[in-house]
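Q: Structure tokens for this one, please.
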Amino acid sequence: MNSSLTRASTFHIPPLQCTTTRNNVVTSPNYAIEGRNLSYSITTKQGKNIPILQDCSITIPSGQLWMLLGPNGCGKSTLLKVLAGLLNPTEGNMYVKRPKSFVFQNPDHQVVMPTVEADVAFGLGKFNLTQDEVKSRVEKALDAVGMSDYIQRPVQTLSGGQKQRVAIAGALAETCEVLLLDELTTFLDESDQMGVIKAVKNCLAGDVTALWLKKVSHFSCSPLEERFSHGVFFSEPNCKPLKPLITFSKDRTWYWDCW
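A: Here is the predicted structure, written as tokens:
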């Protein structure tokens, strides 16, 4: 086992530099996502406290794609939902650049309007935009994810990967600074996976920061993963990390800090 594999109660990324304090949260101008000592637990009907995350710290630079790997039940989706504001941490502080968007693993939970154009425009109703501004944002967002030709397409005719790209386009239309992506390619075939990966890479060209979750069991060093220019991936069979890599074990107490 690699000597850098260490027993701990936290997964860890190297310490911040040039930090400042904002609303009791330690932040750095170079980071889009920062979490300090985050914990999350649930309480059963019997009053028992069950920890899901314990003392987690994470920092991600602006304009990069990072991949967080781990098996089922390790807490990575819980962490993503905490960072997205869908769950409140029981302990710790965090800062995530705004606007931020969360893209669900199942696009059917997010793509709800009858046509592609209507779905991408759906979230823009909260902004004071003219019809021309809405149209421009929708067209630019669909172009970024390679879905311009589908603008009038009924969403029920789309593949799973195409729906994921529409969900990403909806986030881009809102000019998000941070994309939080929950195992987008789990149920997709290779063709759809490639389309989603290309869409995310196009987002990065605009200084969007992305944190992508993926199961360890679904991860291998294939041409698909090698298309990431930022973030992390394994080089099999020796599992040498080529970028910063974080993995969990099933008991949530191991970390691999590979810088």
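A few notes: Residues 29-256 form a domain with the Rossmann fold fold (CATH 3.40.50.300). Confidence is low (pLDDT under 50) at residues 1-24, 217-259.
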